[in-house]
Amino acid sequence: MKHDIKDKKLADMGARRIEWAGRDMPVLANIAKDFAKTKPLKGVKVAACLHVTSETANLMKTLKAGGADVMLCASNPLSTQDDVAASLVVNDGIPVFAIKGEDHDTYYSHIRAVLEAKPQITMDDGADLVSMLHSDLKSLLPHVIGGTEETTTGVIRLKAMAQKKILAYPIVAVNDSETKHLFDNRYGTGQSTLDGIMRATNRLFAGSTVVVCGYGWCGRGIARRASGMGAKVVVTEIDPIKGLEAAMDGYAVMPIKEAAKVGDFFITVTGDINVIAKESFKVMKDGAIVCNSGHFNAEIDIPALEKLSSKKTVLRDFVEEYVMKDGRRIMLLGEGRLINLASAEGHPAQVMDMSFANQALGAEYIIKHAKKLPKDVITIPREVDREIASRKLTALGISIDTLTPEQEKYLASWEMGT
């Protein structure tokens, strides 16, 4: 079995980590039991480009239980947990191509490795698999019947491809499911981003000014948790509705050129490029800490930061100090990559339980309906979304009401008024 990981000897530790995460993923565990009985993915090759974490490992095991032939590579050079990668190879017989800290060329060689196995389903986190398939490996496209996409950034890229009629097969936008973005993006990113910053810096949030660039679901989660820890939160936005919402939620809202002057911590979560750029670096405080929790490090204009600096020093793991020519110091965390995965462990298993339930059921949905689906970005049917939520409530021991026949009739009628 081909693979490329750091060290097989890490497998035992990885297995314990995977088991620990699995305890908090009851929805995915239930799906795995169902898959083991029905084998909806029997004989299907699945190429997954995801963060190689303990939670992802439980998804891979679920897909394998459903009969899939799974291959996994990393969706970010710094997000791999090497012991988890080792366990999947040694204990589960799943080919993994991922090493924490891999360079640019290795990263793309790993993506190529899983694609050259001629998958029928792609499972993406940022659309790098799809991008390579549609550019360098077009000859493999006839083998693919569909795919899934986990992130906001990836969905943006895929929708652009679909608009230009370039997308060659249907892709389920897992990120657009309510049981994904309302929970994973808000609660998962909110908690894990601050966790990553604290692990990297050991700095105090209370009394500090935290600038959150972007007020989507990820930005909302980060702002809320930073505020809860005593920080003064500033939000920057380009959408007037989101800007207004942030103001109504109690945060200061201003352009980045103004926020750059007052921030102690800067966190980008927009999915766009150069959100923090040259003009911002020129006015930041001495000691400002800059990081990203969006999918790609392009949100921070790192080349501009390097040009403005006279010296760069690694002060701690995942902390690079750039000394500006005027003597100010700016700290870049995790090379500008996803800080929650670079220096921490990513989202808690409780929220990934729902996200990966969407991935698993999304793959099953593709197998059942691929021939009828358009070559476009599609959303999992709402009834599947609601089923995931219902399973999660059951696992948490929470009950909710159901409509009475009278209530159902009222909601479906137009005759009954006041």
TrEMBL record:
It is found in: Cytoplasm. CDD domains: SAHH (cd00401). NAD(+) binds at residues 151-153, 185, 214-221, 237, 293-295, 340, 347. It is an enzyme of class 3 (hydrolase). Its cofactor is NAD(+). PANTHER family: ADENOSYLHOMOCYSTEINASE. The keyword Lipoprotein does not apply. Substrate binds at residues 53, 125, 150, 180, 184. It catalyses: S-adenosyl-L-homocysteine + H2O = L-homocysteine + adenosine. Binds 1 NAD(+) per subunit. Pathway: Amino-acid biosynthesis; L-homocysteine biosynthesis; L-homocysteine from S-adenosyl-L-homocysteine: step 1/1. The keyword Metal-binding does not apply. Residues 185-346 form the S-adenosyl-L-homocysteine hydrolase NAD binding domain. The gene is ahcY. Its EC number is 3.13.2.1. This is Adenosylhomocysteinase. GO terms for molecular function: adenosylhomocysteinase activity. One of its GO terms (cellular component) is cytosol. Belongs to the adenosylhomocysteinase family. Its main location: cytoplasm. May play a key role in the regulation of the intracellular concentration of adenosylhomocysteine. One of its GO terms (biological process) is L-homocysteine biosynthetic process.
